[in-house]
Sequence to fold (65 residues):
Amino acid sequence: MLKYLTLAAIIYFFFWLIKHKIRTRKLAQQGIVVEQKGLRPITLLSIVMLVMYGGYMLYYFFTRA
Fold:
């Protein structure tokens, strides 16, 4: 089940990223400059994946031990 959640998260991430890029380009064509602040999207995705797999590893460890 975790692999399906991971796949869904990756698909949603790329959908959001493409939508965000298109929106940023449209705003740039209108002359509005959008600043990037905060975490980069790929950093956020890697943190989420790390937490998911770390949680699964802890769950597996405590249920099997």
